[in-house]
Amino acid sequence: MFRRRITLTAAALAAASLALAGCTGQSTDQSDQATLSVDLDNLATTTEPGTAPVDEVKWNLPYEPMSLDPQFGYNYAENTATANLCESLLRMKADFSIEPGLASEVAQPDDTTVVYTIRDGVTFWDGTPLTVDDVVYSLDRQVGETATSYFSSYFQNVESVAATGPNQVTVKLTKPDVLFTQAMATAAGAIVQKAAAESQGEAFGTPDGGLQCTGPFSLEAWNSGKSIELAAYPDYWDGAPLVQKLSFSFIADESTAVNALRTGDVDGQYFYLPPAGLSQLANSDAVTTTYGDSLVFWTMMTTNFDGGLGDDRVRQALSLAIDREALTKVVFQGAGIPATTLAGPAYWGYEEEKFQQAWDGFSADPDIAKAKELVAEAGTVPPIVLAVQGSSAVHEQTANVIQAAGQAIGLDIQTKVIPVEQFGNLYFDPAAREGIDGFFTTQYGSFADPTDVYQMFASTDSHNYAGWDHADEDIFAARSETDDAARADHVIAAQQIITDELPWLPLAYEPVTLVQNNRISGATASFAYLYAPWAATLGGVE
Amino acid sequence: MSVGLYLLRRVGGLLLVLLVTSFLVFGLLYLAPGSPLAFILGPRGGTPEQIAAVTEQYHLNDPFFVRYAAWLGDILHGDLGYSIVYRQEVSTLISGRVPTTLVLVSMAALIIAVVGILAGTYAALRRGWGDQLTSTLAAIGLSTPSFVIGVALISVFAVTLGWFPTFGSGTGGVDTLYHLTLPAIALSVASAAYLARITRAAVLEESGREHVQTATVRGLSPQHIVRHHVLRNSLVPIVTVLGLTVATLIAGAVVVENVFALDGLGSLLVRAILQQDFAVVQAVILVLVVAFVVVNAIVDFLYTFIDPRIALGSRQ
């Protein structure tokens, strides 16, 4: 079946697909979900590095990026592309630990001062050397109240960014901020060439204006609507990649994407939610599917605390009535993990034992009797309206599961379908949220620190639509606590309040689904693919 | 009417239609709920200060007439404007997508004309089970959504047989024709079925006419009668329907473009409407209106060839 060395996960899958090879008839009946045996306890972070040079690898993105300027890349397609183009001061490794990137050294003489030493011998694609001016420019443009960077919330405590030596940049903070320091390993810390960005202005990072960064691949062409083409940068400081040309297509339709992967028209793709045709990929001899460690979680947000979901007891009852084990099997075809808290084990980048102990105190087991008691205590509950994203099986099926759970305990839950292009308006247009009590969404923190997830519940955060503020004290304390042990205590305290009161219902943790054609291997399997050059290790299989 | 005068009248009419359409579209979009903010500020939203700054920068809160006048002024200078969602010139967005749409629609129009007219004529002349079969197929073709046909075509001809690529518009020339074959078929099925029905009805009606019966009695060969007396007279309704169908194909291609991941105008338009990307919506609609008027003019010219009694630009 597989004629090469494969990772643990792939081996488990190979066994699964051998077991499934007996049933050749492709089931098109949605209710008959083939559950794959995914080893969720041993999710991969890497795949076997490729060893042979490859002329071209064709990769698919779930949609066309809006921009390739890293400050406007805070979403799957954008980050999948820019991760290979623009490098950050720090580099996120596949296991989410952080190592030096374009900064060869980081020093913190005190809690509010961060000094970055810029790596020697780094050049932009046009051959000009990376300077402190480029670094200052790239960070400084994201600072300030009217900065348009999608990452501006990470820069809210930055007082100044300045060159303090020929190869040294110093960031002064108004107060300690562990989110800023860790965000430098994400696209927030990506460095672009000052000269190119200034001369192109708004066109920088678009098909009109091009891009200038230091990554292992350079931007060759962006044919609007059709493709993005990258070429290996031969003078890359960390060794030129094996793949000579990396081209991206934009197939949005899942079944077409799956078919293109099966025929080899496309060599690979990252799915952040398992596609409907997952079993076809698992059964295919042409591709290998790897499930990777991820920071993505699936949740139901409460957006209106004055309606049916306003009473804590109603949300607790609903949470107790949901069979998350069944939900992961039905909705995610087995490629999902029942979630008890919003930030799962993948986030424990420090103080793992403390987090584990706290996490063990929560359970995902349904308890219908207790749920009914809570609903009875809450009294008359008005109908609950949930927004569901159109043309998304995961949304629709989850809504069905939640409706059934509500019915079982006497809650009237209704759904309202919103087209995918307009779903984004829910995130900050109060008018769009009119008449809606909650909606489903995938969310993720950007690095392995639960502080980044629970920060969304700070009353000042743009995610916090309803002004829920019951955990502010610990959330703010955690953000400015540089001592890991002390920070873990604050995070755990905030997590306790948030998981008890459930402003958002945790539903599932979502592994990365990485699909690679068998002629290639080496792409990063973990969620770090969004921020570190995942194609640098990609190559042919000999 | 002379051709010169006819064209002058057409161009004048076109400009008027463009003005009215642009005003209506702008107004409707203005009244529609939602805003492009979601796509400018990114998936994480923004602070009130950021929202205010962006609203100011792109004049999102300016009165309707101020915004419309600004857009109209740009158009008169030959500037299609700027897509605030994609941060690029609308002309770039559109020019990249026109060729794909043009080839796709042309191929589909060819398939619709050939298959529709042949099948309809066959059904009308054959009667009996041939007619039954064609009518049944037409009914199936009319009632099957194009995305179902698209997915079925991909799984049979691309995945199982490997004859065609699964997606995309190719690299130009023959490669593009090859890539767009399956999408063109998927796009044309429903319209071809519809045209077959229209053709069948028109041919049947013409066959029953007096001059046809006269020709039959005079012993002219059946082929001659069909070609010169039946088909030629049936062509007026057929061409009318074909013209209208082709003009609507551009927007109708959205579903097929999505299934085959094509960079066409249809999907660009739908996305732009949902994202409230004014400049893009306006530009695509203008292209559609121009295409519609051009196709109609072609149909007008065809009438004069089919039936010499119809004068160019007459209102019969």
Outline the fold blueprint.
The complex is a heterodimer of chains A (542) and B (316).
Chain A: H1 8-20, E1 54-60, H2 76-82, E2 90-92, E3 98-100, E4 103-110, E5 113-118, H3 132-140, E6 158-165, E7 168-173, H4 178-183, H5 194-200, E8 217-223, E9 227-232, E10 243-249, H6 254-263, E11 268-271, H7 278-282, E12 287-302, H8 312-321, H9 324-331, E13 337-338, H10 352-359, H11 368-378, E14 384-389, H12 393-408, E15 413-418, H13 420-423, E16 438-444, H14 450-454, H15 472-479, H16 484-501, E17 504-517, E18 520-521, E19 539-540
Parallel strand pairs in A: 1-10, 1-11, 14-15, 14-16
Antiparallel strand pairs in A: 2-3, 4-5, 5-7, 6-7, 8-9, 9-10, 11-17, 12-16, 12-17, 13-17, 18-19
Helix pairs in contact in A: 8-11, 15-16
Chain B: H1 3-31, H2 37-41, H3 48-57, H4 64-76, E1 82-83, E2 88-89, H5 90-126, H6 128-143, H7 146-160, H8 174-207, H9 210-217, H10 222-252, H11 254-259, H12 265-274, H13 278-306
Antiparallel strand pairs in B: 1-2
Annotation keywords:
A: 542 residues; 11-stranded mixed beta sheet; 16 helices; 22% strand; B: 316 residues; mainly alpha; two-stranded antiparallel sheet; 13 helices; 2 strands; 77% helix
Structure, explained:
The complex is a heterodimer of chains A (542) and B (316). Helix content of chain A is 27%, strand content 22%. By secondary structure, chain A is of the alpha+beta class. In chain A, the strands form 4 sheets. In chain A, strands 1, 8, 9, 10, 11, 12, 13, 14, 15, 16 and 17 form an 11-stranded mixed sheet that branches. Chain A has a 4-stranded antiparallel sheet with strand order 4-5-7-6, covered by helices on one side. In chain A, a hairpin with a 5-residue loop joins strand 2 and strand 3 (98-100). In chain A, helix 8 (312-321) packs antiparallel against helix 11. The relative contact order of chain A is 0.18. Chain B has helices spanning 3-31, 37-41, 48-57, 64-76, 90-126, 128-143, 146-160, 174-207, 210-217, 222-252, 254-259, 265-274, 278-306, and strands spanning 82-83, 88-89. In chain B, helix 5 packs parallel to helix 13 (278-306) and helix 8 (174-207) packs across helix 10 (222-252). Chain B has 316 residues and is mostly helical. The interface between A and B is large, with 48 and 52 residues.
